[in-house]
Design brief:
The structure is a homodimer of 397-residue chains.
Chain A lengths: L4 H4 L5 H8 L6 E2 L12 H15 L13 H15 L8 E4 L1 H13 L5 E6 L3 H8 L4 E8 L2 E2 L1 H11 L3 E6 L13 H11 L6 E4 L15 H4 L5 E6 L11 E4 L2 H15 L4 H13 L2 H26 L5 E2 L7 E5 L6 H10 L2 E2 L1 E2 L12 E5 L5 H22 L1
Parallel strand pairs in A: 1-12, 3-4, 3-6, 6-7, 7-8
Antiparallel strand pairs in A: 2-9, 4-5, 8-9, 10-11, 11-14, 13-14
Helix pairs in contact in A: 3-11, 5-6, 5-10, 7-8, 12-14
Chain lengths: 397, 397
C-alpha cells in the first residue's frame, strides 16, 4: 500500500506524545493549552441546549450551509467590532471546526510545495503542522520581547518578498511566548507588508484574555487593503469541545475557503453553531470572559512570582499580559527535551520549545501553561521545576 | 494574491448552486440527500443532552483526543458487528466530522497529483470533490444494474492495476444510482482486487436503510487482507447536523489518518460524539432505524410506482432496494442540466447526472431523492416532472 508524499511526511506530534504522558491526575501539567474546565458555563449550557431544540427544532440537527449559521455569523460580526475593533459583515465570515481547521484550509488555499511562508520564531506548533502538509519552506522572522523585529522583516522581504505566499502571526499573547506586539510595531509591520500582496494570517484565539496593560488594535482593524485574514475562536472564551471558530477574510479569499470546506467536511456542526449562538443571545459572553480574565490573571501572576522566587537566575521567562502561556529560556547548551524525563519523574510537565521553531534548533526553551491548574498546584509545580533547573544549571558550571 | 494550484482548480459545486435554488418552500425538491426531519428523535435528544452534561460534566465540552471518544468507538465496534458483519475493535476506528471528512482525509493520505483512482461510473459527487483536491486521474469502471462489472474491472486492472492508488465504491444503495451489488459480484470484485495492494474505500452511509431484499455482506466483512477501509455515518440513521461519522481501517492506515486529522482540525466535537454515544446507550438505535426503513420504504415504493405510471416509456429508472435515491435515464441526446430551468419553472427540482461522472459526459441522467418529501408531494412532484419529460421526449421525434 503506497501512501502519498504528504502522508509519508507525517510524524507524531511531540506535544501529542507528551500530553499522553501527562493525563495521569498526579502530574502537575503545565503542558497543554487547556482552558480551566471549572469555569465552563455548564449550567448555562443546559439551558442553551433546551433553547436550541425548543426554538430551532429539527433545523438545529439537519444539514446546513458550508459557510455556517447566519445568525451566529451576524453575532460574530458584532463581536468583531466590540472586541477586536474590526468592521465586518456576516458575508466576510465563515464558521470553521476550530481555528485549526482555519489554518489547514488556508494552507491548502494558498500553498503549493516549496512555497515560502513567513512565521514568527518561535510560533504555534499547530500552525506549523497545518502548513507543513503542503510542504512549504518556512522562513523564521526574528522576534524580540515586542514581537517581530521590523528591521529583520525588512531584510527578509528585500530578499524573498516576491516569493512569499503567506505570513502567519500571533500578535496578541503569542503561543508559545506570551508576547504582545505594541501598536508601533504593528504599524511598522503593516507598512512593510503592505508593499507586497501576500496575505497576512492573524491568529487571535486569546485576544480577549488580557490581564493588564492597554488593549492594542488588532492587525485586521488596522488593515486597509483586505490583506489580513483574522482567525477567532470560542475555544478559549467559551468551550473548546464544541469546535466552533471563525475566519474573517476578504470575500475573494472566503469564496475559495468555502468551496474547499465543502469538499473537506461539508459544514461544521449545525447543533454546536447554535449552541454558540444561543449562548451569546441568552447570556453575556463578555461578562463570562471578564470572570476568566480575573482567574487566569491571578494564576499568571502567581506563576510569574513563583518562578521569580524559585527559578535560578540563569533562567529567564516572559511576563505575558494575557493569554495562556509563558516562555522559559534556559542557558545555551541546555536541552528542554532531554530534561523532560527528569521533570516527569517529579510529576511535572511542560512542552519543550524545539518543535515551535520551524527549522529546528533552539532546544533551550520550554512553554508553561498557567490557565489549567489551581493556585496550590501552580506553586508546587513551579517549585519542583525549579529543583530540576537548579541541578541542571549547576552541571553547566 | 496568489492562490495554490488546488484553490485555482476549485469550482462551485453544481449541486450546491442548485440546492440554493431549491430551498424555497414552494419547490418540491427531490434534489438533496436530506433525511426526513420529521423523524429526527428530538425529544430523545433533549434527554440525551441532559445526560451528557449530568454524567460527563465538563469533560463533555473540553478538548479531547483526535481519534475520538473511546466509549463511542467501542459502541461503534459493536454496531459494525451487528449491522455490517464486521469484526473490529475500537483501535481500528476513528471518529470523523461526517463521512465527507473521511473521504478528504483518505484523499490526502493516499493521493498525489496524477495518481490513478478507480471509481464507479457514475459515483458520489462529494467523493469526486474530495479526491479532486489532490489532482488525481480518475478511471471510471463501467457498471450495470448489479454494480461494477468484474470483466470490465479486470481489463482496467490488467492495464492500470500497478498504478492504482485508491479505489472508491458504494456497493450498497449507491449514490446516485440506488444500485446494490449482489454477493457474487462482491466476491468476484474482491478476488480481482486482492491481487493488488491498493486500498478499497467502501462508503456505506445507507447500508442500514434496506426496504426489501436480502441483506448482503459488506466488502469489509469479506475482506481478509485488511485492504478495505469502511466509512459509516450517523447522518442518515440518526442526525446529520451533529457531523459524527466513523472510519474503520487497518491500524497502519489509521495511524496516518489520525496524525493528519490532528493537523486538519485537532478532533471532532467532543459534545456531539457524546450525544451519539448517549443516544446509543439510552435508546435503541436499531428500532429507530426500523421506523425510518418503514417510512422511507413506503416513499420509495410510492415514487417508483408514480414514475412507472406517469413517466414516458422512453425514460427508465432504477428500483433501489434501500437508501435514498433513484436514478433516471433519459433517451440519448437529452440533457438533464439543460432541462433544469423548465423543471424549476414547475417548482420541482432534481440533481442533473453529469457531475456524478468523473470524466464528464452522460448528461442524460438525473438523481431523485425520495426520503425528504411527504407522500402527496412525491406524487405531485413526479407528475410535474412527467409533464416536462413528455414534452421533451416528444421533441426528439
Amino acid at each position: 500500500m503506497k501512501f502519498s508524499k504528504l502522508a509519508s511526511g507525517l510524524k507524531a506530534s511531540e506535544i501529542r506524545e507528551i500530553l499522553k504522558l501527562t493525563t495521569q491526575p498526579e502530574i502537575i501539567s503545565f503542558a497543554g493549552g487547556l482552558p480551566a474546565p471549572e469555569f465552563f458555563p455548564i449550567e448555562e449550557l443546559k439551558k442553551v441546549d433546551v433553547a436550541v431544540l425548543e426554538k430551532d427544532g429539527r433545523a438545529a440537527v439537519q444539514y446546513s450551509t458550508t459557510e455556517g449559521y447566519l445568525p451566529l455569523r451576524e453575532k460574530i460580526a458584532e463581536h468583531m467590532k466590540s472586541s477586536f475593533g474590526v468592521d465586518c459583515t456576516a458575508e466576510e465570515i465563515i464558521i470553521t471546526s476550530g481555528s485549526q481547521q482555519g489554518l489547514s484550509l488556508l494552507s491548502q488555499v494558498f500553498l503549493d510545495a516549496d512555497d515560502v511562508v513567513l512565521v514568527e520564531s518561535p510560533t504555534y506548533l499547530g500552525a506549523l503542522n497545518a502548513f507543513s502538509l503542503q510542504g512549504p519552506k518556512f522562513i523564521a522572522v526574528p522576534t524580540d520581547e515586542k514581537g517581530i523585529i521590523p528591521e529583520e522583516l525588512d531584510k527578509i522581504l528585500q530578499e524573498h518578498g516576491k516569493n512569499v505566499r503567506l505570513m502567519y502571526v500571533i500578535p496578541e499573547f503569542q503561543n508559545p511566548t506570551g508576547i504582545t506586539w505594541p501598536l508601533e510595531r504593528r504599524k511598522a509591520f503593516l507598512k512593510l507588508v503592505e508593499q507586497y500582496d501576500f496575505p497576512i494570517l492573524e491568529d487571535d484565539p486569546y485576544g480577549e484574555l488580557r490581564y493588564d496593560g492597554e488593549k492594542v488594535p488588532s492587525l485586521k482593524s488596522l488593515d486597509t487593503k483586505g490583506q489580513v485574514i483574522f482567525l477567532g475562536s470560542f475555544s478559549k472564551i467559551f468551550l473548546p469541545g464544541l469546535r466552533v471558530a471563525w475566519m474573517v477574510a476578504d470575500p475573494v479569499i472566503l469564496d475559495k475557503v468555502i468551496k474547499l470546506k465543502q469538499a473537506v467536511d461539508l459544514q461544521s456542526s449545525t447543533f454546536a453553531q447554535r449552541q454558540a449562538y444561543y449562548y451569546m443571545t441568552m447570556y453575556d459572553i463578555d461578562a463570562h470572559v471578564k470572570n476568566l480574565v480575573e482567574v487566569y490573571g491571578k494564576r499568571r501572576t502567581l506563576m510569574y512570582n513563583t518562578m521569580k522566587e524559585y527559578f535560578p537566575k540563569e533562567v529567564s521567562f516572559t511576563y505575558p499580559e494575557g493569554g495562556l502561556f509563558t516562555w522559559v529560556t534556559l542557558p545555551e547548551g541546555m536541552d528542554a527535551t532531554e530534561m523532560m524525563p527528569k521533570v516527569l519523574e517529579k510529576k511535572v510537565a511542560y512542552v519543550p520549545g524545539g518543535p515551535f521553531y520551524p527549522n529546528g534548533g533552539h532546544r533551550n526553551h520550554f512553554r508553561l501553561n498557567y490557565s489549567n491548574m489551581p493556585d496550590d498546584r501552580i506553586v508546587e509545580g513551579v517549585k519542583r521545576l525549579a529543583e530540576v533547573l537548579k541541578e541542571e544549571v549547576a552541571k553547566l558550571k
